[in-house]
User: Fold these one by one.
Assistant:
Number 1:
Amino acid sequence: MHAAFVSLPPLSQLYMEHRPRALAIARRIVGDTDDAEDVVQDVFARLARRTPGFGGRAAWSTWLHRVMVNSSINWLRARKRRERLSHEPQEPLSPEVQAVGSEMERHFGAALEEINEQQRQVLYLREVRGLSYPEIARLLRIPEGTVKSTLHRARQRALSLMEERGQQP
């Protein structure tokens, strides 16, 4: 069953009508007006390219509310990752640590090649790219619960493959 085409007013009109509410939603979640403005601008910029997920089953304002909540939460998660990275010590790594890290990357990459495609994708997106469960679910078009269970199985399988080869993670 295909969703019917839903005609929307021009994006500029939607922006003028819904920006105050979108900004309030983002501000409530991210806690800062400037950061909330960034989230709103990002959402409307994405909407200018296309209206992903809007099929007309709910009011546009209801759909926008959900998009703003999700985008704000994702923005917070990304900020936490950035803060965590910026607080890590910036000392140069010793050659020994660099060698061990490179060796582990190689072993991890080899283990990735031996697990099934869905597990490989989920593990890569989570561990290498740092995406959240909802982001992975949306990207791969699978339920979030499937992402979590697949990630668990993928980690177990990759670790067992590395251990079988005598490669301690």
Number 2:
Amino acid sequence: MVNRRTTLMLLSGSLIAPRVALAATAREITWDDLLPPGVPYAEIIGEGDMDEANDTWAPIFDENATKLNEELDGAYIKMPGYIIPFDMGSDGVSNFMLVPYVGACIHVPPPPANQLVLVSASEPWPRDKLWDAVWVTGTLSTHLQDTSLGQTGYSISRAKMELYEW
């Protein structure tokens, strides 16, 4: 005798059709999302020092510059940015810092830690596209880490990459 639960399962097709796993959709974020809730960007960078002879400005970061948005730890995200490579192979770059604007970290000083993402790509990004804006998709981790280019607050491993379309 077929019980009521089995009848409902047969009618709904759950015993007949295999279950299909849906791919997770990445949450699209911006650089502002990396700031901790309630901390505006203006409260991260102090006045700083202007070197008029060299026409450079060295901002003074306060303690908010290393505060991270812990709500994003473990989140599957997609965000735009620019590549500052750590190393480059014949296939392209796999390890880099994702930055919010062209030339960040190349020109002193780097942005604050909560505006830098350390990225390890699943496949090398082509050398001839290093100056292009990119989308980076992956699981974001929150932790401070020192690199040769500056302190980062976030990282993504095995990131998927694609060209950022305007």
Number 3:
Amino acid sequence: MKELFFDESIILLDLDYSTKQEVLKKMSTNLVEKGLVKYSFIEAILEREEEFATGLPTEGYSVAIPHTDIEHVIHKTISIGILKEPVDFGVMGDDSETTPVRIIFLLAMNESHSQLTLLQTLMQLFQNEETLKYLVEENSKENIKNFIEEKLKLTQL
């Protein structure tokens, strides 16, 4: 399994968009420019979000965890986007509902089992309201990177 790529260049703060499509396109394009995903990842992530909503109405701040199929991924990574203002995402498991998302964890995994492991780990992280508050309020990409690495034990994925 290739090592997970995670650094400050894929942590995007103060994103100012009004739709989930705009945010996902910005975050996906950043990963394409870094050579981490194929160009097809952009369209794949948008299409999958329409089919399978990824918004989670968690305590404090809602989160979204968009992801798509492994064939669009060159190197596994997690991109984090923090929005200035909430953007509506469909609720996972009930896309007739929406939730105002402020934090996005865009997953690009190159193996199905690593994606499932990461999703399970992230779900535990999202249960902590203080963690989500920290992510929204912190303005240092380096601090966010270190915090997430510690919380998720990224070197073990």
